[in-house]
Design goal:
The protein is 55% helix and 9% strand. The chain is mainly alpha-helical. It has one domain. Strands 1-2 form a two-stranded antiparallel ribbon. It starts with a helix and ends in an 18-residue tail after the last helix.
Amino acid sequence: MKDKKALIFYFLMGLILLDFGNQLKKISYNPYFQLKTNPVFSIVHVNNSGGAFSLFQNGAQILAILGIIVILFLIYYVYKNISFKDKFSLLSITLFSAGVLGNLIERIKFGYVVDYIKLNFINFPVFNSFDIMICVGIILYVIFVLIDFKGLNFKWKRKKQHKSQ
């Protein structure tokens, strides 16, 4: 195990993000909450039995198995490779994991995920907060890898300031 604090952070932050995503989802179930259509987004309620962008329709079992494999791999990866000092990579992996786990729980429980955010200014599939967590987690991780943070150990470099007198 690389760092016990990293694993604890991973699980605790993941649980907080899961709860946050579930609270947002409840908005789409509430008949008293109606967000009037505006130019940016609407709250709708769509049962999606597929994956992202409604791909793999009626493939909930395959996507659930894939989700379980991904979660187990990420737990192992964090356990073996991530230290608490790797805050940026830990955050990106935690976001990604919480999104995968949130969608996985819905797929196992209902056979579909509930999507509820509809962008009105572009023709784009309806999505949910867990999809956002997955995308943000992947984007952050790719940025960290592309910039090469020396094994994802990002260290802020401060420029020395010279005082002129």
